[in-house]
Design goal:
It is a single chain. The chain is of the alpha/beta class. It has 2 domains: 121 residues, Elongation Factor Tu (Ef-tu), domain 3 (Beta Barrel); 143 residues, 3-Layer(aba) Sandwich (Rossmann fold), CATH 3.40.50.80. It is 16% helix and 29% strand. The protein is built from 5 helices and 13 strands. The chain has a 7-stranded antiparallel beta sheet with strand order 4-3-7-1-2-6-5. A 6-stranded mixed beta sheet has the order 10-9-8-12-13-11. Strand 12, helix 5 and strand 13 form a beta-alpha-beta unit. Helix 4 runs parallel beside helix 5. It is globular, with a radius of gyration of 19 Å. The structure holds flavin-adenine dinucleotide.
Length: 298
């Protein structure tokens, strides 16, 4: 292992091109000097992205193993805003990495940057280090190889990961049965996804937050699920306005495995339904709040 190898490493990136995938999602392709050191371990590989501060000064986090402690130690006014994103694709031969950004307006440093960014703009990210030979992390999609039945529920922020998950499953010799539910702001936010006979993809259009129930929550209610197999489980409370909802799957039961990510209030409602009302084993469920409406989580 290289002497300076750590699970996550800092990379200086330059934007090469941007491509609108749908009204809400834009793909940004980046390159950088050390791309040969970058790797990705799973389709939901999370990374930290550092954006320019409120004065427009570009992030200047030093490339050293204690980057996080260094960043935390900076006065808040000088600290480059950091947000979590997903590696959508890594092309080592072309020395390029793709990140798909939801453009949700001028309200946050990430979306604001993405709305303006043009080729040549710089960013910093931390991503897995290819030279690190230990047990890497930063992802939750770990389905058992013999899984038979998969439930995927995502909003637009988790669509990059969900698309990667479907691409991975499509390459299996016998892909499992998959129900995928994807909630987006606009009816024409659909993007091309793989297809196989036992995959059902359901696009759900969110008409607005005044909807009685977010479409991804309503979808969980109508999902075809295994018989209750873990009745009476305790379900710790999570205050999604104060903490991050992050339940990891531990084991798979009855061949079933679920991956659910998106707005934390919606994911919390889905958690309540799947565990309390439908009696699914919590240990087969990944339930992740990717963002929280009206809040800033980093
Ligand atoms: C593991 C993980 C992976 C993620 N991967 C991706 C990804 O690949 N692509 C992606 O676009 N996002 C992804 N996200 C979500 C992203 O981190 C958040 O949306 C983040 O808040 C965006 O930062 P911001 O600076 O734009 O807004 P913030 O400064 O964080 O928030 C400002 C305001 O905007 C609101 N807001 C934040 N996100 C949205 C949104 N999507 N729609 C509407 N309002 C919003 C907040 O509630 C707040 O009121 C991921 C999150 C996690 C935890």
């Amino acid at each position: 292992m290289a002497a300076d190898a750590t699970p996550y490493r800092l990379f200086d990136l330059t934007l090469v091109r941007r491509e609108a995938l749908s009204p809400c999602l834009t793909r940004f392709s980046f390159t950088g000097p050390d791309m040969a050191r970058m790797t990705t371990l799973a389709p939901d590989q999370r990374i930290k992205v550092f954006f320019p501060d409120a004065q427009g000064r570009p992030a200047a986090v030093p490339a050293r193993p204690d980057w996080y402690a260094w960043w935390k130690a900076q006065p808040e006014a000088d600290r480059a805003p950091m947000r979590t994103y997903t590696i959508r694709a890594l092309r080592p031969d072309a020395a390029e990495v793709d990140i798909d950004f939801v453009l949700h307006g001028e309200t946050g440093p990430a979306s604001r940057w993405a709305m303006r960014a043009q080729p040549g703009y710089a960013l910093q990210i931390t991503a897995p280090d290819r030279a690190f030979t230990g047990q890497g992390g930063g992802y939750e999609w770990k389905p058992p190889r013999d899984v038979r039945d998969v439930l995927l529920i995502a909003d637009e922020t988790a669509l990059p990961a969900l698309a990667g998950i479907l691409e991975e499953l499509a390459a299996w010799p016998a892909p499992p049965t998959v129900q995928a539910f994807i909630e987006t702001p606009e009816a024409d936010d659909r993007v091309p996804l793989p297809a196989w006979s036992r995959l059902s993809v359901n696009w759900l259009h969110r008409k607005g937050w005044e909807d009685a129930e977010p479409p991804m929550v309503a979808a969980a209610r109508r999902a075809r699920l295994p018989q209750p197999n873990a009745v009476g489980q305790t379900l710790p409370d999570v205050d999604v306005d104060a903490e991050i909802l992050w339940d990891r799957a531990e084991a798979h039961r009855h061949g079933f495995y679920a991956w659910v990510a998106g707005e934390a209030g919606s994911v919390l409602a889905i958690r309540q339904h799947l565990v309390k009302e439908r009696g699914l084993d919590r240990r087969a469920l990944n339930l992740m709040g990717y963002w929280r409406r009206g809040r800033i989580l980093d």
